[in-house]
Amino acid sequence: MTTEQAIVTHDDVTRKMADNLTDPTRRGHVPPISTAPATSVATKPILLVDFDGVIHSYKTRWLGARVIPDPPVPGALEWLDNATNYFDVQIYSSRSHDPAGVQAMCSWIVAYAVHVFGSSAKAIDLINKLKFPTTKPPAFLTIDDRALTFEGTWDRFDPQLLLQFQPWYKRKKEMTDDKPV
Ligand SMILES: [Mg+2]
Question: pTM, whole model, 2 decimals?
Answer without folding.
Answer: 0.75
